[in-house]
Structures are given as structure tokens and as C-alpha cells.
């Protein structure tokens, strides 16, 4: 006799099966799980070769869809370059690889060995520009399927370099600016692939969505369109030695938050079938005519040495930064803030802070601890030991002078908090200390319109003797008037520009690369 529970369960299963659309089909045709791992190969689809050795990287891997099949063993990669006779010569220095003519067999005998091989290709003597051949890859393994892939090898190398774009200064807020671009092919072969043009902007420029073959990816952190990536793909070839320019320049509006906007731009050749790079979370496809490359007119101007460049747009705008401090007599702690009263926003450039807080503790008092948390979602910033006017070192207790760099972007109304614990070294008579906001090592002028709030003085009650708490406590903080306390913080290396040497140069005007981070 069946139990009531079993009978009820059977009835319920039948009802659910009858009511669930497609339930029977799923039960009758379950997805089969693999019985061995599937092999995959990752390699470029086109390789251009010249007289110099061209490095080539090929890798492989296995997946089982979660079936937990046996681990592949005795993995073998075969590089077959027989079709490249008279076109390109192959060289592989990897000790796992053995050559037999133009065929290289590379074997992994241990599961811990790398699933990749690096080799080089070089144009064969007497090869004609434009000659093509095919290189073949094959992977086999015990307990794994095989996989194959091919790459087209072309004799000749196109080489695109970008023209220098001049910096824009004194741009009026609300005005529009043109962003031109020139390219030159300094290689020995015309481009035969799609060309990707990319502009990565940080600082508040508002790009017009005017070209149908361009995407405009706008990030909304820390503010709408604070960061924008424009990606355009053009197909027309660029002949050897030719100089071309955009059929019409990009245009952008100088937003009300722009202080100094940094734009990194580049040109690259896309692999066959490769999707263009994109960024940001708010993507817009451009409208209007397609952007094209046309023969350059007028004076050619200067060019970069490679396919990347940078320019800045400095607006006639300002950022009123103020220093504030709260004294916690009970815990002998100081809560410092750098507050941005606007109207412009500031963006960290190349991991270099735009603003720092310079702290001078009162005579008879030294720092004992910096309350600091790493990570983007941490509210407390790091303070560094001031060594000189141009150098800092990691925090060290027992000193009176510290520098606290603002690690992230700050929009108007936002602030960065720093917490220092202090202790006495001698009789304290109520002497005052100072906290002052100053331009940071990014070298971006703030054009601060109100110097009266740049510095603030503070002191402790001279009648109270400090006692160090045995257990660290988290201080209560309050946001500046009209703003909210952002989550700010970063990794140690992002705050200390030369962490290995323990140094952070102050006031250095050097722009070499753009790091993109989220801020809050």
C-alpha cells in the first residue's frame, strides 16, 4: 500500500507537468552533457610580416560545460607553416616544440605547463609585398576533442600614426569645439582591414552624436557624460605614405562641470571579424552621415611617433575647494575634509590626485595613526608623510606634517574624508595647527575663486590630557553643507604614485596615460 504522501506527490507532479508549457519536451529531450572536454584555440586571424621578426601568440584551452569530465592530458599543439614557403620563415624557441621542416609540434607533458606558445614570423627573402599564405594550428589531447584554426599571413606591414591634436585653452563653458584627426600610413603596405578610431574623454565634454558609424558610450559615474568613449569604424584603405583626415571633425560641447578635460585618442586595425572596443554604460549610436577618411588638405602639421595621442581642453571655469576639520577631543582624532564647492568637477589624471590636503599639526603634537581603508567603496582616504615640498612617503607615526591626496574624482557638493589620530610629545599649550587644500601632482589648475576657505586652523583643549584608546573606534562623520559624503578610496598603488620608492611628486605637470575609475 502506497503512503498518502507518495500518492499526493505523484498527483502534484502530474498537475505541474500538465500545466507547465513545454515541460514534456524538456523531459523527453534533455541537453546532453559532453563526455570529454572541448578544445578551443585563440589566435589572430591575420598576421602581417616584414623583414623584422613579428611575434605571434597562440593559446588553447578546454571546457566541459560543467560535466566534470576527465582532465585532458598529453596536450599537443601543431603549427603547420608549409603553405608559407617563399612567403615567411618561422622560428620557435620554446623547448616544448620540435621542428620537422616547416611543421612544429609542441607537447605539454604536465598539466601545469602553459597552454600557449610564442613564436616569430619573418618575411622570406625575395618575398613580394602583398603575397599571402596560410598558417594552420591543430590541438589534440587525451580525454579532449581536437580543434583547428588558421591565420592569413601577408607580406608587408601597414603602420598608422596619428597627428598631434593641439590643446584647447580658455574654452567658454557652453561653447562647442572641433576635434580633428589626421592619420598617416608610414608602413610598406596599404591598410587592408577596418580601421578603428577611438577617443576616450574624461572631464565632462559632451560629444555630439553626429556620425552613423560611431558609437558614443557615456558613463554616468561620477556624473552624466563625465566620461565618454567615442568609437568609429571606417573601411576605406590608407595607401602607403598617404595622409588622411576626418571628413568632418568630431564636435563636443564644453559642459558646465568641465575644468580640464583629458582626451586620449588612437587608431588601430581590427582583426577580421573582431568587434570594435566599447566602454561606458550609456551607449548611443550616432545619426547622420558616416564618418570617412579623406585626403588631408592644408599644412600637414606634426605627428605622434605611434598610433596614440592625447590633448586637453581647459575651460574658463573654476573649482572652489575648501578645507574643513572637526576635532574629536575624546578620541584625540582629527577629521579633515577636502570639499568641492564647484562649479567645476575635478578628475584624477593618470592616478595623480588633482587636490591634496596639507596638514601641519600643532607644536607638541604628532600623528599616531591614519584611519584608512582601501577600496573604491571606502570613505576614509590615506594620508602620507610629507618629506619635502616635492616628496612624500607612506604614513609614519611621530611627525607633524602630512599630505592627504584626494584619490578620486570630486563633483560639486562632494568631499573626501581623512582621519588622523594624534598624541602629545611635550606639554601642549593650546597651539594651533592648519589644514590647507592645494593643487596636487596632476598639475591641473583649480582657478580657485575663493582663497579664504582654502586653509583652516584647529586646536585641542590644553586642559585635557590625551589617553590613547585600547580598541580603535570608528569616528562619526558629517557631510559638508549642501553635499553628501562619498565613498572614496583606492588601492595603495593608486595613491602613492611611486609606491616602491615611497614618493609622490607634488606639482608635477606630466600627463602620460589615462586611468579610468569609478568614483562616488
UniProtKB/TrEMBL annotation:
Q: Per its UniProt entry, which superkingdom is the organism in?
A: Bacteria
What residue intervals traverse the membrane?
494-514
Signal sequence residues = 1-27
Keywords, A to Z, come to: Cell wall, Membrane, Peptidoglycan-anchor, Secreted, Signal, Transmembrane, Transmembrane helix
Q: Where is the composition biased (Low complexity)?
A: 464-487
Note the coiled coil stretches, chain numbering.
none
Note the InterPro entries from the entry: LPXTG_anchor
| Polar residues: compositionally biased ranges | 452-463
Q: Where is this region: Disordered?
A: 432-487
Looking at the record, the residues that make up the Gram-positive cocci surface proteins LPxTG domain are 479-518
A Pfam family assignment? Gram_pos_anchor
- What name has this protein been given in UniProt? LPXTG cell wall anchor domain-containing protein
Amino acid at each position: 500500500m502506497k503512503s498518502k504522501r507518495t500518492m499526493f506527490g505523484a498527483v502534484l507532479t502530474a498537475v505541474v507537468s500538465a500545466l507547465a508549457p513545454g515541460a514534456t519536451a524538456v523531459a523527453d529531450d534533455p541537453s546532453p552533457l559532453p563526455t570529454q572536454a572541448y578544445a578551443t584555440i585563440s589566435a589572430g586571424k591575420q598576421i602581417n610580416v616584414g623583414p623584422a621578426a613579428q611575434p605571434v601568440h597562440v593559446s588553447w584551452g578546454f571546457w566541459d560545460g560543467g560535466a566534470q569530465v576527465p582532465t585532458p592530458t598529453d596536450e599537443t599543439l601543431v603549427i603547420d607553416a608549409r603553405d608559407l614557403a617563399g612567403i615567411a620563415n618561422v622560428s620557435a624557441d620554446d623547448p616544448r616544440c620540435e621542428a620537422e621542416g616547416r611543421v612544429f609540434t609542441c607537447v605539454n607533458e604536465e598539466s601545469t605547463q602553459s597552454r600557449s606558445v610564442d613564436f616569430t614570423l619573418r618575411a622570406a627573402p625575395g618575398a613580394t609585398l602583398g603575397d599571402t599564405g596560410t598558417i594552420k594550428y591543430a590541438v589534440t589531447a587525451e580525454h579532449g576533442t581536437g580543434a583547428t584554426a588558421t591565420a592569413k599571413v601577408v607580406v608587408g606591414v601597414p603602420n598608422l600614426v596619428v597627428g598631434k591634436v593641439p590643446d584647447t585653452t580658455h574654452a567658454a563653458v557652453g561653447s562647442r569645439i572641433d576635434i580633428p584627426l589626421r592619420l598617416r600610413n608610414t608602413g610598406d603596405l596599404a591598410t587592408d582591414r577596418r580601421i578603428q578610431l577611438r577617443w576616450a574623454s574624461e572631464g565632462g565634454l559632451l560629444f555630439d552624436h553626429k556620425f552613423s558609424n560611431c558609437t558614443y558610450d557615456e558613463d554616468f559615474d561620477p556624473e552624466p557624460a563625465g566620461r565618454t568613449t567615442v568609437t568609429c569604424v571606417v573601411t576605406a584603405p590608407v595607401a602607403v605614405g598617404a595622409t588622411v583626415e576626418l571628413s568632418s571633425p568630431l564636435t563636443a560641447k564644453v559642459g558646465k562641470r568641465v575644468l580640464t578635460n583629458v582626451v586620449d585618442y588612437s587608431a588601430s586595425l581590427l582583426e577580421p571579424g573582431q568587434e570594435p572596443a566599447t566602454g561606458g554604460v550609456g551607449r548611443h549610436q550616432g545619426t547622420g552621415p558616416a564618418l570617412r577618411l579623406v585626403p588631408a588638405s592644408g599644412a600637414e602639421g606634426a605627428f605622434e611617433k605611434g598610433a596614440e595621442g592625447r590633448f586637453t581642453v581647459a575651460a574658463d571655469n573654476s573649482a572652489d575647494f575648501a578645507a574643513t576639520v572637526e576635532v574629536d577631543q575624546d578620541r584625540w582624532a582629527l577629521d579633515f575634509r577636502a570639499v568641492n564647492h564647484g562649479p567645476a568637477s575635478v578628475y584624477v589624471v593618470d592616478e595623480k590626485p588633482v587636490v591634496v590636503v596639507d596638514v601641519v599639526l600643532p607644536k607638541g603634537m604628532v600623528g599616531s595613526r591614519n584611519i584608512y581603508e582601501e577600496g573604491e567603496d571606502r570613505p576614509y582616504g590615506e594620508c602620507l608623510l610629507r618629506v619635502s615640498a616635492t616628496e612624500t612617503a607612506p604614513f609614519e607615526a611621530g611627525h607633524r606634517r602630512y599630505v592627504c591626496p584626494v584619490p578620486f574624482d570630486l563633483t560639486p557638493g562632494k568631499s573626501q574624508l581623512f582621519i588622523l589620530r594624534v598624541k602629545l610629545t611635550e606639554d601642549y599649550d593650546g597651539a594651533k595647527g592648519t589644514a590647507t587644500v592645494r593643487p596636487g601632482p596632476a598639475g591641473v589648475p583649480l582657478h580657485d575663486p575663493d582663497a579664504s576657505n582654502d586653509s583652516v586652523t584647529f586646536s585641542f583643549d590644553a586642559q585635557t590630557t590625551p589617553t590613547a584608546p585600547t580598541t580603535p573606534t570608528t569616528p562619526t562623520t558629517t557631510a559638508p553643507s549642501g553635499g553628501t559624503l562619498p565613498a572614496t578610496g583606492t588601492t595603495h598603488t593608486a595613491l602613492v604614485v611611486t609606491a616602491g620608492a615611497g614618493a609622490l611628486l607634488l606639482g608635477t605637470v606630466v600627463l602620460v596615460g589615462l586611468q579610468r575609475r569609478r568614483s562616488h
